[in-house]
Amino acid sequence: MKTKIMYIENKSFGHSGPAWIGFVEFSKSGQTIYCNGKALKKLKRPEYIANYFDIETGEEYWVSGIKKNGQDRHWCGGGKIMLAKNSMDEYLKLVDFNSIDKNHFEIVEFSQTDKSRFNELENTETEFRDSSFHATFYDNNRRKLILDTKI
């Protein structure tokens, strides 16, 4: 599995939701990332505010690479970013900083992600509620995505 350091922000709280920087693992298809006990799946139609969702809770997230200037939060958002302890050295190299600013970051331990826990959720057959043109389509995680047109 490929791992990479990424910025992750919970958008269920707007631009000031909890945010993390740390290593994530990608699924074989690259459609799901695993980090800090969560499985985040890529939205089929990303929005300007979110591009992934939590397959257990449905909460929306913004996931992106690290900005070299260290300004990962949205310009109108706020709050400390939780930085995974095991990714500090890599983060400092990416942004070319000498130290972590404790006013902007909180150092935390990421929990391990048990990927097998999400296997059943991700591999359930897609369910169609209605075959009419105006029906709403639900993906295998019971999250409303699009009208009944296939992508």
Give an overview of the whole structure.
By secondary structure, the chain is mainly beta. Helix content is 10%, strand content 33%. The protein contains 2 helices and 11 strands. The protein has helices at residues 88-95, 116-122; strands at residues 3-10, 19-26, 32-35, 38-42, 52-54, 60-64, 81-84, 105-108, 127-128, 136-138, 144-147. A 6-stranded antiparallel beta barrel has the order 1-2-3-4-5-6. The longest helix has 8 residues, at 88-95. The radius of gyration is 17 Å and the shape is globular. The two termini are 27 Å apart. Mean pLDDT is 82; it is low at 133-138 and 144-151.
Task: Please provide the count of β strands.
Answer: 11
Mean pLDDT: 82
What sequence of helices (H) and strands (E) makes up the elements?
A: EEEEEEEHEHEEE
Please summarize the sheet with the most strands. Answer: 6 strands, antiparallel, barrel
Percentage of residues in helical conformation? under 10%
Molecular shape: globular
How many H/I helical runs?
2
What structural category characterises the helix and strand content?
Answer: mainly beta
- Separation of the first and last Cα atoms: 27 Å
Biggest β-sheet: strands ordered side by side in the sheet:
1-2-3-4-5-6
**Uncertain regions spanning at least 5 consecutive residues:** 133-138, 144-151
Q: What is the CA-based Rg, rounded?
A: 17 Å
Beta strand %? 25-35%
